[in-house]
Amino acid sequence: MTGTPFPIERGHVLAFARALGEEEAAAVPPTFPIAFAQFDPDWPLRMEPGKPWNGSGAEPGVAKGGPGGLHAEQEFEYIRPLRIGETLSARRRDGRTWQKPGGRGVLNFTERHIDFYDADEQLVARSTTVTVIVAAS
Hints:
Blueprint: E1 4-7, H1 10-19, E2 70-78, E3 87-102, E4 105-117, E5 123-136
Antiparallel strand pairs: 1-3, 2-5, 3-4, 4-5
């Protein structure tokens, strides 16, 4: 089974921790696994040198060139602590989809999972993200 290789490098962890307002990073911050996106060539919001960035749009919640929507929820589950120096394999899988009526139209929810495996193919963490897109009524 393959996946996107995701190295947990000390410098990357420190930069991530400082972006969160921490001076030092004694351990991997709890939300750090989302940084795997920088290693995933198919991630739609990944910045690439010399190419326009998709992550900023004219309206809140709308990415240029992407489907738009709102990042509604994210949670992380840990089987064991992540360790600086290890390389994980990130594997995406689809989750549930559902709809709810909203004030501006129908709210379409999509759940996605990313499972993180260590070099021994053991599941070490899981991320679940929910996005919502408003479909005009």
